[in-house]
Amino acid sequence: MSNLVLLFILGGCGSGSSNSNDSGSHLNPALPSVDLSASLSNLAYNGATTLSWTSSNTSSCTASGDWSGIKSTTGSQSISALTANSNFILACSGTDGSSNDSVNITVAAPAMPSVNLSASLSNLAYKGATTLSWTSSNTSSCTASGDWSGIKSTTGSQNISALTVDSNFILACSGTDGNSNDSVNITVAAPLPTLTFSATLSSVTQNSSTTLNWSTANATSCTASGDWSGSKATAGSKTTSTLFNDSQFILTCTGPGGTVNDMLNVAVVLNQNGTALLSWTPPTLNTDGSVLTDLAGYKIRYGISSGSYSETIITNNPGLSSYLVEDLASSTWYFMMTSFNSSGVESENSIEINKTIN
Asked: pLDDT for 131-165, tens place per residue?
C-alpha cells in the first residue's frame, strides 16, 4: 500500500504576487513632567517668596503640602507672611500619567522685640534735669512705668526735670512676637542746706548785747565760731555776752547735701568818756602746771590808789577776754584782776595797770 502525501500550498496561484498585512510601528507614550521653583528659599520671619511652575503633557495640576487647590498647568503665585519652614508640592496629570515636584522654604526664627532706654545724665544735682531717649525694634507699642507713665512712641525722647529723689524709669514695648523692656536709674543728690542768720541789733554801745537768730533747711547740725562757739541747734536764738568791741559771729551748718555758712558783724560804739577797756589772755594752766579745765570767770578789782581796790566786778563768763569799765570819775585808776574755777578757787593777782581819766 502506497503512502499518500498531502501537500498544502498556502497562497494563491497566478503571477506569484502575495498579500501582506503591515500595520506600521508604535511610538512610546509622552509622559507628563513638572518643574516647581521658588524665587527665595531662605526667608526672614514673616517673609515672602514667589512660586513658579511649568509642566508638559499635562492637563491639570493640584497643590498640596503648605498650599492647596487646583492650579493651572503653568503659572506663578506669591506666598507671603511665612512663619515656619514650609513644603510646597505640585502634582500634574496628563493622558499618559502624572508627575509632581516640590520645593522647601526655610523660615528664620521670629525677630523678638528689643528696647534700649538711656539718659543724657544719670547723676543729677537736687532739682536737676535729664533727657530720656529710647529706640526699639520689632515693636508696635510702648508703655512707661516706674517714675514716669503713659503710652510712648516706639522711638523718642522726653525731658525730665526738677528731680528731687533717686528715680527709676521703665519702658516696656510689645510686638507681634513678644515684648521687651529696659530701665534706667537716676541718682539725685541731696539738697544743699540753707541758712538764714540775723542779729536784732547790728550796732550796740559798749557793755551792751544783741540777740542772734537763725533758721535752716536741709541741715542736720550747726557749729558756731568767731566771737561765739560750740554746737548749735539747726534753728534758734542766742543773746550774746556783753560786747566791748566790734565782734564777728560765724555759723556753719551741714546737711546731707553739703555745708553752708554765714557771718554777722556787730559794731560796738565806744564811749570814750570815763571808761577803761581791759583786755587779757585767758589762763590755760593751774598754778601747779596742770591743764585748767574748769575756768568759771573773772574778778576785776580797781580803785584810785595803787594796791588798794575799792571796786570789784565779777563776771561768770569764762569766754571773755576783755571788759569795759564805765562811769569812772576824773582820776588815775588802778586795775588788777584774777580768774577763778568752778570751785571758787582764785588765781594769783595779775599785774596792775592804770589809766588816767580827765
From this structure: 999 999 999 999 999 999 999 999 999 999 999 99
- Report the b/e string of 25-61 with b at 16+ CB within 10 A: eeeeeeebebebebeeeebebebebebebbbebbeeb
* Strand-pair partners of 142: 152, 173
DSSP letter, residue 25: P
Instruction: Using CB atoms within 10 Å of the CB of residue 213, give its burial: 0 to 12 exposed, 13 to 18 middle, 19+ buried.
Output: middle
Strand-pair partners of 261: 252
Q: Considering only CA atoms, which of 101, 54, 53, 51 is closest in space to residue 77? A: 51
Cell numbers found for residue 120: 543724657
Q: Is the whole model's pTM more than 0.85, yes or no? A: no
* Cα 41 to chain centroid, rounded: 47
Rounded to an integer, what distance in angstroms lies between the CA atom of residue 329 and that of residue 84? 116
